[in-house]
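Practice set, problem 2.
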Amino acid sequence: MKKHIYTCTVQENLVLISKGKTEQNTQALEYIPGSNIRGIVAGSLFSQNADKNDINNIIFNGSVLFGDAHLIINGQRSHKIPASYYYEKDNNTIINFPTTDDFKSKKLKQQRAGYFIFKKGKLNIAKPNYGDSIKSSRNIEKRSSRKGGLYVYHYLKKGQSFQFEILSDNDKLLEKVNKVLHKQTKFIGKAKGAEFGGKVKFSFSKAEDVTIIKTTGTILYADSNLCFLNEFGEFTARPTAKQLTGDDNAKIDWEKSHIRFRRYMPYNQFRQNWDAERLIIEKGSVFVFEKEVEFKNDLSKGIGCFVTEGYGRVLINPDFLNINSLNIVDITETSNDNQSHNNQKVSDKNYIKYLQQLNKEQELSETIQKKVNEYVEKKSFSKSISASQWSRVYNATKMITDNNSLENILEDIQKGKSKEIWKNKDKKLIDDFLSDEIITNNKVFALKLLSKKMRLETKNK
């Protein structure tokens, strides 16, 4: 089997979401699914009235496999952080496969975010660059915004590069796919408006023969999402050992395994609708077997369902999972922002601080959101303040970063024609909110959450 390796560069902000939602936050994907790439190729072949046999072979019968596009780090396609990675909050140590005693004696947190490459004993990590934008649903009958229909797009920012593979035993089919993708610009994603064009440029990098490095071992790492059906034809997050290995005698050690799963609903561009929801095992999940297993499945083609869409890719006993502690590994934090290509090397100590900071930011965000919810319930702003006025505040918080600018912006919003809308009582309520001990050093972020919450509250009244 041969694989064609491609690079795709996001040229306009891109929205890739996991399922259809119209009145709440959308859950963004941090990679470009193989199903999207397959859909692009299918759309081109259909529009060109391609030969029916070619369409059947490339799109439908499994002769061609389309892989997911992952973030590029240092010129290499990355992997999802393993679910077995934990870090110690108060020490400079990362633990792989922590034991029960580790959990009892150390304050361990699971490292969930990010992608990485592992090369020559060095772990290089990065996270995709995201942005957020609040949107309003449309009332088709009235041709206006729908009351209460607000949601937030969490999108991939333009300028980032991803890499993926397309595999097949048939060189001619790969060449036909190459004609569709190479040096071509395509549009993908759920929203294709002015802000989210979803423009992606594809380029062919090279062709290689598929090589499976290891086929025996005790650890299976999910390099892509996995999907399995149980004996009743239903999606399951608990596959059998035989489904994973092809070996009737294999047994999974569930206590040592680290599995993440979620529901995913692919969007069908041709039908302009959502496909059936799937229960999938997320990439980065780790299965551990009780003893060494010889994998009898054809790992080059993937395991489980939907392998043509990039599902089922696995690694056996990868080197990055054969390390008990990561405190002896040099770690590089790599930015994937095209505006800055300066890679900053950091020590293990700085890396731990980086993880701890991510955790603190998450905890602080949850604390402030809780404060916002409590404040909105207990306090009462004037009914004269409309959703559009709260939108002005929300948009202002997206444009500034320091507290001094915030005070000036608020003053501008609350004067002039808006003076009668923003009563003195309302100004005092905001001042009281921003003077809270937890919020004082995070005023911009806190007011952003408050204005978003109040906009929703006002819209729903």
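Problem 2, part (b): a different protein.
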Amino acid sequence: MNNNQLKVLDLFAGAGGFSLGFKLAGYDIVGAIEQDKWASETFAFNHTMAKVITEKIENITDANLLEIFDSESPNIILGGLPCQGFSICTKNAGDPNDHRNSLFSEFIRVIKLFKPEYLIIENVPNLLKAKNHDKQLIIDLIFQNLQELGYKVYSNILEATNFGIPQIRKRLFIIGSIHPLKQPFPEPTHYVDSEILPIFKTTLKKCPTLWDAITDLPEISAREGAEEMDYTKPANHEYQIQMRLGSPKVYNHVAMKHSKRTVERFSLMSHGDSLANIPEHLKPFKRNNQGVISDKIYDQNSRRMHPDKPCHTIPASFYANFVHPYQHRNFTAREGARIQSFPDWYIFKGKPTVVSQKLLQREGRFDEKYLCQYNQIGNAVPPLLAKAIAENLLQQI
């Protein structure tokens, strides 16, 4: 099979990090299905040759799917479906009124329709412990479903830092293959100082730190930055050179509009400190009760990151989770994208942030009820991790 035959269809595609890794490895991204409008716009903008369908997968009939994608003959199908989508791999398990409970069935439906030679699922490691209402392990049911379709099935938990991504991020990957694979998963290429014996340092590269990843981006304070900016400093690390390759500008580098009180709060934090470590008078107020300090302080909120270590896991709400190592503000979307290993030319659509989904629903602001840039970035599969999987698979084909 040559590269021209490596056609990828991405289900539950999000902003396209999973597909980007395969694209960087030489695969042809022919299509994607993503229900969120802004995430879908991001995918389409950066994968211009792909057919991108913005719709819930359960609303697309077999006939529609065949009409849209059959001419492309996808032989690799990716699926980063939400963990809730695995809750009813068998009948009578889960809430039938919750559409998320049918997502794995929808994934299987598409697999049956196109019969790809390979499929890859990404999810959180806790899926290995998850059970349905009948106390059956979800992972066993996934294996069973795929094996019944004729696939050899493999699973492994991969750590992002092992593949040169400056972020502590473990993810479960499940690979289904019509043909047996001698080595389904890639071997580590990088190490973190505190986690490896000296003997291995001669064969592996050192994983970039957080500071290695972002130090060349324009220095901005709270309320500064822009959706498009010039570079103001040269790249000074191999990772920065890799991220800047092919990008004429810096995009999505807009700092949060913090209040003076929030900036003062951050200014008193040392590396590793969070809201739990600041003076009492600067702690957050109770919601809708101005002037009263909240008695609920979340230790993981607004923690100042260490510059000389990989970053903590970037979640969907990372705009409120981490404080820049030296600037008195949270990360920008672009800094999060760098930490996730998105190249600088990859532009995220939609608003940088939105208020709570519940508030948007209550106020009828449905034109904003989508995944903001931060959500898209935090939900994504790190492209360099996906690329490692794609390149390893290419060696097996």
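Answer key, part (b): The chain has two domains: 3-190+382-396, 210-379. Residues 90-94 have pLDDT under 50 and may be disordered.
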